[in-house]
Design a protein that fits this description.
This protein is of the alpha+beta class. It folds into 2 domains: 137 residues, no CATH class; 157 residues, Gcn5-related N-acetyltransferase (GNAT) (Aminopeptidase, 3-Layer(aba) Sandwich), CATH 3.40.630. It contains 7 helices and 13 strands. The strands form 2 sheets. A 7-stranded mixed β-sheet has the order 7-8-9-10-11-13-12, sandwiched between helices. Strands 1, 2, 3, 4, 5 and 6 form a 6-stranded antiparallel β-sheet that branches. The chain is globular and about 65 Å long. The structure holds coenzyme A (COA). The site of coenzyme A has 21 residues, from strand 10, helix 6 and helix 7.
């Protein structure tokens, strides 16, 4: 006889509503909360083609931004203008409250399950559909990658390979947001990740259990000899389902080591002022703020600073 626990749960379906007046919608995701299991998580499938054939004028960037916000909220990330919701129940309440944006929650439903994570995947498949396995994003880090007891496997950090192109493209595509990137939404998935600016050699890749979960781009900010002692972190991305388990830190540490070995005496980077998680990560690795370009970008209607950070490396003993 099995003695599996039965957990009560609530869920809402997230709907894409391109025109709030017409109120027509397509389901894009599900948020599931189980107080008993201590579980709050979101899964979604952003099928651009399907959504655009439903509504050609749909603002996909706005939809992606709303989904990013929902993911961050689920995870408990704080951001300016967002209330601090410490408990998962409060966050579910916020996510399921009616609103009139391009992403709207449907009514709250309930159920019982032995495994909320499995149930969420099932609901995403049933409610959202699509041929692809939904990108389920764990709000509780212990429920994401790694074993069920929440032990974090250390990521393997290695140099990029040409064969990583597709996985890196997908990672950059799925994690893009204006929280960390002032550029427009990433180029189509069909465009290669590696290009004249970044070759596999300039990329460090983080793997957990053979899956690529993060990358960091190393570059030289100046082509001339006078600035050859400076290297730059020109991109850093950790898959949302692998965050808060040391992957970003491992990538930054490996990159600093690598740059030092390549002769760098100084490492710089630029980070958006409102990107608190990245700024905290860099600060914890010894980077300091060296300058600020105030209000350098207008992102989602708000002026955002661009912050220059730097790290001095001791000269290498030959
Ligand atoms: C920023 C980012 C790379 C961090 O990666 P990560 O693997 O989640 O970070 P780590 O688990 O290694 O965290 C290391 C430290 O960074 C800080 N940090 C990371 N995420 C944080 C968050 N959400 N809130 C607060 N601090 C955070 C903490 O100091 C953390 O140490 P702690 O876990 O002991 O508190 C990741 O959130 C990400 O990919 N964000 C989107 C892309 C991005 O912002 N890139 C940077 C562009 S400049």
């Amino acid at each position: 006889m099995t003695t599996a626990s039965r957990f009560g749960y609530q869920y809402v379906v997230l709907r894409c509503v391109p025109d709030v007046v017409r109120e027509e919608f397509r389901n894009v995701g599900v948020v599931l909360y189980s107080q008993l299991a201590g579980f709050l998580d979101i899964g979604y499938e952003l099928d651009a083609q399907r959504l655009q054939s439903f509504s050609p004028s749909l603002d996909l960037v706005d939809l992606r931004r709303c989904l990013d916000e929902a993911v961050q909220l689920c995870r408990g990330d704080t951001a300016p203008g967002r209330p601090e919701l410490r408990r998962p129940g409060q966050r579910f309440g916020w996510l399921s409250a009616p609103r009139s944006t391009v992403l709207q929650p449907g009514p709250v439903h309930g159920g019982v399950t032995d495994d909320p994570a499995v149930e969420l995947r099932r609901l995403v498949r049933v409610m959202v559909g699509g041929a692809v396995e939904p990108s389920v994003i764990a709000a509780d880090p212990a429920a994401a990658l790694g074993d069920p007891h929440g032990r974090h496997p250390a990521p393997l950090i290695r140099a990029g390979l040409p064969s990583d192109d597709r996985a890196l493209r997908q990672l950059a595509h799925s994690s893009w947001s204006h929280v960390h990137n002032p550029m427009p939404a990433p180029s189509p998935l069909s465009e290669p990740f590696f290009n004249e600016h970044h070759q596999p050699d300039d990329v460090l890749v983080a793997e957990i259990d053979g899956e690529i979960v993060g990358y960091l781009l190393i570059g030289r900010p100046y082509p001339m000899e006078t600035g050859s002692h400076v290297r730059q972190i020109q991109g850093l991305d950790v898959s949302p389902r692998a965050r808060r388990r040391g992957v970003g830190q491992a990538l930054v540490r490996a990159a600093v080591r690598e740059m030092s070995e390549r002769g760098a005496q100084r490492v710089t980077l630029r980070v958006l002022g409102h990107n608190r998680s990245a700024r905290r990560l860099y600060e914890s690795e010894g980077f300091v703020v060296e300058g600020t370009l105030p209000g350098e970008f207008v992102l989602d209607g708000e002026r955002v600073d661009d912050v220059l950070m730097g790290l001095r490396l001791p000269p290498r003993v030959q």
